[in-house]
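Q: For a teaching handout, I want to show students what a protein-ligand complex looks like in token form. Below are the inputs, and the small molecule is iron/sulfur cluster. Please produce the holo structure.
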Amino acid sequence: MLKVNEIYYSVQGESSKAGLPCIFVRLTYCNLRCSYCDTEYAFYEGTDFSIDTIIEQIQKYNCKLVEITGGEPLVQAECLPLMEKLCDMGYEVMIETGGSLPIEKIDERVSVIMDLKCPSSKMMQKNRYENINHLKTIDEVKFVIGTREDYDWCKKIIEEYNLSEKCHILFSVVFGQLKPIDLVNWILEDNLPVRFQLQMHKIIWEPTKKGV
Ligand code: SF4
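A: Here is the structure, written as tokens, with iron/sulfur cluster included.
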């Protein structure tokens, strides 16, 4: 069984698939407490579903892109066979993880969107840097940047781990904390090989709206 906070159909708000229709499976629990977290409601609330029941819910939508998210989905080990089964069924599967738990057992057909937590998140010490060795070219590393100090730290990490050779890199702002234009200007000044993105759902809907 997996504890599921919500299953819903919306557009991908982040990642290189931004703008595409997508089914989201939000799993309950998170082992981190980021300073800017906007999904605290997923820390404890949820309903126990079997993998088959989750798949039945997914099949209600006419869409082949599924994102497993949280909270931290990797807290529940059963998310691994769920993703495997979805891949076997022909779904394109993505997982969003905070980057503190091992990713090597995730099916290689799944795109991993992995955060590396910046200093202002207050969770930087939880980053599991060994995960970088397991990133594939279809994966993406996401930095959520709240300050200039965060930005400078990201640049250092990208260089140190040669990240741009390994996978896609996403830069986004902590909503309401850092101005998007400041981050864009820094990226352009430094000619960084990263993709700037906004949390699209916070612009389309009310920023606090759930299930979108
Ligand atoms: S990893 Fe995600 S869900 Fe967990 S505390 Fe951080 S922002 Fe919130």
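A: Two things your students might notice: The chain is about 20% helix and 25% strand. The longest helix spans residues 148-160.
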